[in-house]
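Complex 490.
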Amino acid sequence: MKQYRNFIDGRFVDGIRRFADIDPATGRQVAEVHEAGAAQVQAAIAAGRRAVQGPWGRSTVTERAAMLYRIADEIERRFDDFLQAEIEDTGKPVSLASALDIPRGAANFRVFADILKTAPLESFRTDLPDGAQALNYAVRKPLGVVGVISPWNLPLLLLTWKVAPALACGNAVVAKPSEETPGTATLLAEVMQAVGLPEGVFNLVHGFGPGSAGEFITTDPGIDAITFTGESRTGSAIMRAAAEHVRPVSFELGGKNAAVVFADCDFKAAVDGVMRASFLNTGQVCMCSERVYVQRPVYDAFVKALAGRVGSLRMGDPRDAATTHGPLSSAEHRRKVLDYFDLAREEGATFVAGGGVPALSGPFSDGHWVEPTIITGLPETARCQREEVFGPVCHVAPFDTEQEAIALANDTSYGLAATVWTRDLDTAHRVAQSMRVGQAWVNSWFLRDLRTPFGGSGLSGVGREGGLHSLNFYSDITNVCIRIPAAGKR
Ligand SMILES: NC(=O)c1ccc[n+]([C@@H]2O[C@H](COP(=O)([O-])OP(=O)(O)OC[C@H]3O[C@@H](n4cnc5c(N)ncnc54)[C@H](O)[C@@H]3O)[C@@H](O)[C@H]2O)c1
Ligand SMILES: O=C/C=C/C=C(\O)C(=O)O
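Predicted structure with 2VS bound:
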């Protein structure tokens, strides 16, 4: 059986216990994962501290950028290994993992190398009453040892989205991937070793949250900052842990995202776009649209077209290029999603498509499959309209006016993403700017430029990452202020 070990101070080490890594497409075990104990997490943090105090913490931008390019190149050289590990851990279709997850794993390093090299320093010239001036400029320095905790839905993409800028800024990292998806993170540790990243700069520990590696990282005073992607409830627990030693946090959390479709949209593009926004990665993307609002004149046609398209999603062997819909991440997560389907029925929903468990044959008969599902008829107060399901499901409801659509979309305690479909430029700007979210897309969804701010409002997160926002979070900033006397004065 394949073994996924911890990577501490430049070496792969066994854990204190082992747990099973399950392929959600088949329900079969694919690897044994070595759970790190408290002492091993402490050793990883101590190794990180030594690394930041050593040459790595004093390395130049040019040196670090070169290292990030080497990491990106090595991920690409081992593209197929990463692809197979990601598919084994998630069951996601090869078409998706090869177009999104693995390329973004490499791109995250390359883009942050470029951003680092081109990032300006902030500076201000201050005029003083006596004719003197002051020149202020802010320098970024490493924060120290950064704890990175990531989820299972886009394992390599979301881990590297945080590891890359943390390393770019000269920090050391102690990373913990989700217990459900340890594969590509372990390969990333192999990459770090292969490219010669100094020992202790990147450490990887496997395990769970409470009472395990996740909690050991977040409660350790040796961790200088915590960056986390996952559920809002977990974010809240981590925030409490971070408060103890007053450490900064950056959180990308859950969503209950709206799609707003106006009657003047490009109808086919909107149907295609909402299909993608609701069902990509089996609905397990934090930015997925679970609430779709369609303007009344096109509402019936839209629901019909969406239901027709759902039937064309193909489940099955993730390695078959024709497969477009994978399983859910685990038996437990499928139970949660199916419980929401039951709840939706109790709350009065009409199931326009899906709603059940498909019968797959052969090795995939024990996978954690759920049909892509479209529901209508729920009141906005229904729990299924308010809570994040994180599965292949959207609810479609009609609206009449622009003001009503904005109010419906914003009526949530989350605030991650929205997507607006219209051909009218004025409507597009007005509505997109009115969305209380981190990302408002117009006639598109999950279209990413990694230089832009990314994050969530309300329950969806704390802070923004991306571009300079990442550099600022992963840096300790010192403002230097120099007084320049006026000529002839002191
Ligand atoms: N906003 C975003 O960018 C974004 C991106 C992806 C996923 N998500 C969200 O993530 C969720 C799905 O991922 P998940 O189920 O893996 O999330 P999760 O919160 O259950 O787990 C995420 C990570 O946190 C660890 N963890 C759990 N409890 C912990 C604790 N008390 N202390 C420290 N670590 C702990 C887990 O082991 C895992 O590594 C969804 O809510 C989704 O919306 C958000
Ligand atoms: O599931 C959530 C997806 C988040 C995506 C990103 O963080 C990104 O594209 O950088």
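Residues 153-154, 158, 161, 252, 285-287, 448, 454 surround 2VS (ligand 2) (CB under 6 Å).
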